[in-house]
Specification:
Blueprint lengths: L8 E10 L8 E15 L4 E5 L13 H12 L7 E7 L9 H16 L6 H12 L3 H8 L2 E4 L8 E4 L5 E8 L5 H6 L7 H20 L5 H4 L6 H4 L6 H7 L7 E4 L6 E6 L5 H14 L4 E6 L7 E3 L11 H6 L4
Helix pairs in contact: 1-2, 2-3, 2-4, 3-4
This protein binds adenosine-5'-triphosphate (ATP) and L-homoserine.
Length: 327
């Protein structure tokens, strides 16, 4: 019989960028931007949420984290448990940086830890994919690094690629929300053979380029004809930034997930980071869109249980410790 611990579990979960251009619903990469989830059993359910926009979310048993945690307990044969949930998130909501995936993955990992880890990570991944509907964000958030996966409605086999050491990103986060649901509605039901062939080629090339560290190939490999052209009208400035970013130092640029965030890939040694950032801000600004930029590295570790004593340490310098002087 499975048992739930009385101890509080704290999990740190990375943000993620999905698609990476042509890999629609198949490619995702974890990013060095985080949410922290604290979970424990309680006499009465209590949900406390901290971080920008988190006050918009429900704090009763309809909360996504609560719902997902209960699924884990039910799968382990246990009845519904009142829960104390505290979540702090730096991942902006509904912006294309995997906030829903971070909530799902955080709840799965924390609830599983409360059960003593009865489910393997692979099982958590299958559950997460089913809940999110595609494996790209949840895979990256759970495992870290770059995840290549394919979901057929039953199973999602995957491969994790360690991101090239020199790969870094600049994201520009427009000051408006765009739900994944709305951005998926913009897509057509059918595609031409030439567009499908184009994307298969680019996506395959991108995976090979990332796996072999050939960053110079990103420029051509990141092109997409499956989702970005149809979503561009929802995001002022998007087409211009995706076309022109390479002339300001980017290796290539893409829509992050379902948007509206745009992500530019850059060599971390590049001296054009400030120029690229300014170009992205100026383009959005000329469209009348306020936006925030961040320089983010790939996260290599994925969701992890941290000890309660470490809960106050918000900025664990994992990347700096591991990457050293080589970015
Ligand atoms: N911490 C959280 N607790 C509860 N619900 C959350 C939490 N974070 C996100 N969500 C839910 O997920 C929704 C956002 O999901 P959506 O897929 O539209 O965007 P995203 O995940 O931020 O971006 P993308 O999937 O394009 O990367 C929120 O409106 C909210 O309903
Ligand atoms: N692959 C998904 C990611 C957003 O959740 C999409 O582009 O719709």
């Amino acid at each position: 019989m499975n048992k739930i611990t009385n101890e509080t579990v704290v999990v740190k979960i990375p943000a993620s960028t999905a698609n990476l251009g042509p890999g629609f619903d198949a490619l995702g990469m974890a990013l060095s931007l985080y949410a922290w989830l604290e979970l424990s059993v309680a006499n009465e359910t209590e949900v406390k949420l901290y971080g920008a926009g988190m006050d918009e979310l429900p704090t009763d048993s309809s909360n996504l984290v609560y719902q997902v945690a209960q699924r884990v307990f039910a799968k382990a044969g246990l009845a519904e448990q009142p829960l104390k949930i505290s979540m702090y998130s730096d991942i902006p909501l509904t912006r294309g940086l995997g906030s829903s995936a971070s909530a799902i993955v955080g709840a799965l990992v924390a609830a599983n830890e409360m059960l003593g880890g009865v489910f393997a990570q692979e099982e958590l991944f299958q559950m997460a994919t089913e809940l999110e509907g595609h494996p790209d964000n949840v895979g990256a958030s759970l495992f870290g690094g770059i995840i290549v996966s394919s979901w057929d409605g039953v199973a999602a086999p995957y491969v994790k690629i360690t991101p090239p050491q020199a790969l870094e990103t600049i994201v520009i986060i427009p000051d408006f929300q765009l739900s994944t649901e709305k951005a998926r509605h913009a897509l057509p039901e059918q595609y031409s053979k030439s567009d499908v062939v184009f994307n298969i080629g680019r996506s395959s090339l991108l995976v090979a380029a990332l796996a072999s560290g050939q960053l110079q190939l990103i420029r051509s490999a990141i092109q997409d004809r499956i989702h970005q052209p149809y979503r561009a009208s929802l995001i002022p400035g998007m087409s211009y930034i995706l076309e022109q970013a390479v002339h300001h130092g980017a290796l290539g640029a893409a829509l992050s997930g379902a948007g509206p965030t745009l992500i530019a890939f850059i060599d971390c040694h590049s001296e054009q980071k400030a120029q690229l950032q300014q170009f992205m801000v100026d383009t959005m600004s000329s469209e009348g869109i306020a936006a925030t930029t961040m320089t983010l590295a790939p996260d290599q570790f994925g969701a992890r249980v941290i000890y309660k004593e470490e809960q106050v340490v918000r900025d664990l310098p994992f990347m700096e410790l591991i990457k050293g002087d080589d970015c």
